[in-house]
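Progress note, sequence design subtask.
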């Protein structure tokens, strides 16, 4: 097997025999096969890990969790202006049924949706999605230095949004939080998928509420004024 461990043949045979009687051996099925790997970890792998840069980083992160960052320490770069590449000024003048994707991709739409969520004391969900956008842009980059920054962004997402009592703590199950903590050692594009899905479901509800407000109806005019295209 690709991940096969090195054990004596007699141990392998005994383990296979016990597997056929798992109902009898229960938790002891792999007891004998585990002894050599455990000894290898204790006498070789862990001592090297203890003196590695990974342990230094682990200690640093554990220390950071003793005092979580304040809300003012989070800096999210603004989104680009994309809405005028999708809708013409004439369409914006007439009125557009903007989508949730518009809210998440365009600078002005994001700003207005964020302002609405702030009035409902719900803005942390939108902040979280923006932080994920920045994280994914870094972690998916072919540039090594960008991916390193992506790993730091993964840690920032945890500290600001997922850690208990964090500045912008969102709703996260205990199981999901533990799984994310496990993946932070080597984060990837899918590390936050579970929480992203539930957060997007909440944002979709808030977006549907936003659509019924006057601010949504006037959003086209707001965009035109922001780009100095409104009729004077």
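Output:
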């Amino acid at each position: 097997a690709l991940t096969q461990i090195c054990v004596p043949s007699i141990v392998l045979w005994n383990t296979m025999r016990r597997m056929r009687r798992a109902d009898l051996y229960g938790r002891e099925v792999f007891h004998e096969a585990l002894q050599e790997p455990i000894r290898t970890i204790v006498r070789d792998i862990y001592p090297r890990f203890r003196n590695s840069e990974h342990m230094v980083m682990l200690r640093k992160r554990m220390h950071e969790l003793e005092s979580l960052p304040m809300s003012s320490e989070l800096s999210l770069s603004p989104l680009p202006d994309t809405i005028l590449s999708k809708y013409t000024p004439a369409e914006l003048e007439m009125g557009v049924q903007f989508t949730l994707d518009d809210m998440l991709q365009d600078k002005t739409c994001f700003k207005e949706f964020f302002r609405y969520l702030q009035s409902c004391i719900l803005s942390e969900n939108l902040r979280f999605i923006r932080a994920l956008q920045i994280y994914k842009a870094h972690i998916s980059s072919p540039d090594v230095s960008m991916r390193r920054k992506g790993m730091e962004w993964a840690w920032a997402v945890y500290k600001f949004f997922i850690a208990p009592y964090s500045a912008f703590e969102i709703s996260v199950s205990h199981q999901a939080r533990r799984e994310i903590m496990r993946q932070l050692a080597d984060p990837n594009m899918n590390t936050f998928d579970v929480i992203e899905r539930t957060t997007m479901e909440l944002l979709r509800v808030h977006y549907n509420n936003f659509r019924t407000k006057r601010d949504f109806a006037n959003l086209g005019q707001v965009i035109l004024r922001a780009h100095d295209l409104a009729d004077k």
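The chain has a mean pLDDT of 91. Work on this subtask will continue into the next period as scheduled.
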